[in-house]
Amino acid sequence: MDILIYGIINSIALALMALGFALVYGISRVPNFAHGALYVITGFITWSLLRTLGLNYLISIVLALIIIGVVSALIYQFALIRVRGMAISEIIASYAIGLAILEGLRWGGFKGTTYTLPVFIEGTINIGDVPVDLHRLLVVAIGGAVVILLWLFTHYTRIGLALRGMAQDERAVLMLGIDSDIMALVAMAAGGMLAGLAGIVLLPLGNIVVEKGYDVLIQAIAVCIVGGLGSWMGAVLAAFLIGFAQILTTVYLGSHFQMVVALLAIILTLILRPSGLFGKQKELEERV
Amino acid sequence: MNIEQRRKERLDRGIKVRTDGLYALMSWRELSYLTLPRLVLIVGMLTLPFIMPSMYWQRVISIVCIYALLAMSFDFLAHFVGLVSLGGALFIGVGGYLAAIMNTYFGMPPLLTIPIATVVGAGICTLFLLPCLPLRGVYFAIVSLMYPLALARVIEALDILGGTDGIMGIESFGNRWVEQYFVILMVLLFLFGARRLVNLDIGLVFRAVKDNDQAVRASGMSITFYKAVAVFIASAMGCMGGASLVHIYMWSGISLLALDFSILPIAATVIGGAGTLVGPVLGCLILVPISELLRAFGTLRIVFYSLILVAFIVFRSEGIMVYGQRKYHQFERWVKI
Fold it and tell me: Do B310 and A214 touch (CB under 8 A)?
């Protein structure tokens, strides 16, 4: 029972982490290796707004999300846009930006156990006979809401439809008069905000530490690969697969193996079904 | 309307054209034009241990050479085969741990452990990376980024191979001159070897894999096989570096899988000149000593490399070596249009 409940929670958490990466990659084909850094830095921004400026929790969350959106847009506009389409440079540039943020934070002294965000709601509740704290339930609710909102956004708004069109065929979109650079900028900002949201929602469950940046990046990528790079619904489904696998290994082997699970999931996917669960559309493109 | 009325024209120097072929042997001048840059590098590398002021800086030379091996392997993979490896630390780690195990558990001397670690380690790394080789795109970068992180976790969690303390008591080279000249010679050997290799037939296939894999496939060659060969060669360079490193430090631990080994070679390659194979070595000669000087700043160094890296790759993706080659081989003049 507790495996089931915590598996669902962990899966939703993974889905939250991965959606930002999947969004950016799906739309602009830029693998955003700075994803984990954006996740962590949002936590620190919220912390600073909350603790040093003494703002209201909700206000600082909203402000932090706006800041991270602007920051990712700036990263795209000033660095990534120039290397877009050059696979080698894209990877190196985004990875280096992520590293600079993470290691800069570490150098700036943001480490240790002093940095924690408060949980949204205190208290625990028993489901069956398993105690679950309310914050974790909130994570599930927020995760579900984000997935549904994203779906609605990409199916019923003009920008969302443009983004989806761009994910399918950039040239066709250009011919229809949609500026693909602006759309990629929007996607990057939205991806950064999703990473930030995941950070804000998930970081209260533990300390804010720099190392999480690498973990999150890797887990997000693992989810995206298993689900098929660029496929959002595949990412959600894959999050459940990996989430349960991780909970099972944590219960039976130990929590150190979470990253190994992610790695094995990637390797197995690449061997068995390289385009991922739902990557059918791009299958021909990626398989040599 | 303010349009440039002139543009820069670049022409190959006559001597460059003449020395491209067999005619290079015609005169001393042309011979020296060809050999001078190479000789400067070789002689410079060989005299480095003598001009270094202290033991400490001599040690830095060895570290430079190890990073240079790694950077060459990155350059080879990225710009000749089209595989971006974000996990140089994997090669160092595998090579280093293999050498450490062979030396401490089986008592083999460095003379044996280094070659074995190079070949076996390269095999292991190739096996590790094999699943992502049939695919195009970012998979190789992702998987190679994950391996060092995951391996460090596994070693920590299972407490194998010395756990967090690492393996101590590894035999050193014995003599610091032997140590330095060994790594310097290895760098030169791999450098000229790799330069030769990319001009052989197999090197052509590698570049074809990078530029147009479908054409390679249409020629009846297995892309996966050639990529595996390339990964084997590149990881051999890295594993050799790792094996030498543990014998230099006489210690092997999780820090072999640290981020420094992944990011510095990339920065060195980008600064030195991508796709030249000499460039990465030059880049390491510049970056590693700077990084030693900045040792007091701790992780700020990684920030520093990363920012340099972003700046170079985004704004000036040429690199020192490409610039130098252009100046050496070509002359420029303004022409009216």
Answer: no
pLDDT of B3 over the 70 cut = no
How confident is the model over A166-211, as pLDDT tens digits? Answer: 877 778 888 888 888 888 888 888 888 888 888 888 887 777 777 7
pTM, two decimals, is 0.84
Instruction: Give residue A176's identity as a one-letter amino acid code.
Output: L
Nearest Cβ partner for A99 among B146, B224, B263? B263
Report if residue B46 sits inside a domain: no
Alpha carbons within 13 angstroms on the beta-carbon side of residue A199 total 35
What is the distance in angstroms between the Cα of A58 and the nearest Cα belonging to chain B? Answer: 32
Query: pLDDT digit string (tens) for B85-140?
Result: 888 889 998 888 888 888 888 878 878 888 888 999 999 999 988 888 887 777 88
Q: Which residues of A touch B135 (CB under 8 A)?
A: 270, 274, 286-288
Residue B3 counted as domain residue: no
Whether residue B68 lies inside any domain: the answer is yes
**What pLDDT does A287 receive?**
47
Which chain A residues touch B270 with a CB distance below 8 Å? 92
The answer to whether the Cβ–Cβ distance between A218 and B84 falls below 8 Å is: no
Contact B83, B140 (CB under 8 A): yes
ipTM for the assembly: 0.76
Per CB-CB distance under 8 Å, the chain A contacts of B266 are 92, 96
Per-residue pLDDT for A156 more than 60?
Answer: yes
Question: Could you tell me the two tokens for B36?
Answer: 């001078």
Q: What is the pLDDT of residues B15-24, one digit of tens each?
A: 777 777 666 6
**Angle at CA of residue A219, ends A75 and A145, nearest 5°:** 80
pLDDT band at A113 (very low <50, low <70, confident <90, very high): low
Q: How far is CA B227 from the centre of its chain?
A: 17
Nearest CA in chain A to B300: A107
Q: Which domain holds residue B234?
A: 55-256
Q: Could you give the angle at which helices B55-76 and B223-249 cross, rounded to 10 degrees?
A: 170
CB pair distance less than 8 Å for B137 and A104: no
Within 8 A by CB and 6+ apart from A48, the residues are none
- CB neighbours of A53 closer than 8 A, spacing ≥ 6? A60
Tally of structural domains, chain B = 1
Cβ–Cβ gap A256/B302 under 8 Å: no
pLDDT in tens, A23-59: 888 887 788 888 888 888 888 888 888 878 777 878 8
Residue B10 lies in a domain: no
In chain B, residues with a C-beta closer than 8 Å to the C-beta of A286 are 135-137, 139
- DSSP secondary structure letters along A48-72: IIIIIS---HHHHHHHHHHHHHHHH
